[in-house]
Amino acid sequence: MPSYRLHYFPESGNSYKLALMLTLCGETFEPVWTDFGGGVTRTAEWRKAVNAMGEIPVLEVDGVKMTQTAPLLLKLAEQYGRFGAETEEEKFELLRWLFWDNHKLTGYMATYRFMRAFTEKNDPQVLKHFRRRLEDFLGILDGHLQHNAFAIGAKPTIADISMMAYLHYPSDEHGFDFAASHPAIHAWLGRMAALPGWKPAYELLPGKRMTNYAK
C-alpha cells in the first residue's frame, strides 16, 4: 500500500479535502504541519524543496510530491474505486461540479474566510463584494441540493468532498448560518458528516492554529 505524507495547515480546506478523502478510504497519512501564517510557503527555499507553485496542500505518495487538490482527488477516487463516477454522464457531472467548486465556491470562500477571520485588518468593501458573490454561489448549490442528495445524485463523490470542505468549518470563521440561510446545504453537510469514518478538519489536521480575529 502507498505511504502518504500530507503537508498542510489546519485552516486549509483544500488540505482537508485530501485528508478526508484518504480517511474515508481507510488510509492514514503522516501530517506535516506547515507555517502558512508565518509565510513559509512564500519563501524561495520552501518552493524549491516542497512546491514550486507555492501552495498547500502537498501530498507525498511514496516520497513523490504531488500538488493540486482536484486532480489528486480524481487520482485517489480511481485508485481506491470510491467516491468516483460510474457512467460517462456521471463523470461529466462530477467534473462539472468539481470545476465549478474550484473556480467559484472554494475559490471565493477560501479567500473570503481567510480575509474575514485570519486577517487582522481587512477592507469592508472587499469583504462585501466577496460575500455578495458567495451568496450567489451558495444559492445555486442550495437549489441543486433541494432536489439531489449529493452533487451528482444519490451517492457522495469527490465533488461533494471538494464542495463541503470549506463550508463545514465553524460559522465564526466564514460567517454563515447555513441552517437558517441555506437549509438544503445544512442538511447535505449533515449527510456528509454521517459517512462512516468522517472527521472534521481540526481533528484530522492538528497543529498550531492561526488567530481568529472574527471571534
TrEMBL record:
Top-level lineage group: Bacteria
Residue span, GST N-terminal domain: 2-84
PROSITE patterns documented for this protein: GST_CTER, GST_NTER
Ranges of residues in domain GST C-terminal: 87-214
TM helices/strands, residue ranges: none
Pfam families (alphabetical): GST_C_3
SUPFAM superfamilies from the UniProt entry: GST C-terminal domain-like, Thioredoxin-like
Protein name: Glutathione S-transferase family protein
PANTHER family documented for this protein: GLUTATHIONE S-TRANSFERASE-RELATED (PTHR44051), HYPOTHETICAL GLUTATHIONE S-TRANSFERASE LIKE PROTEIN (PTHR44051:SF2)
InterPro entries given in the database record: Glutathione-S-Trfase_C-like, Glutathione-S-Trfase_C_sf, Glutathione_S-Trfase, Glutathione_S-Trfase_N, GST_C, Thioredoxin-like_sf
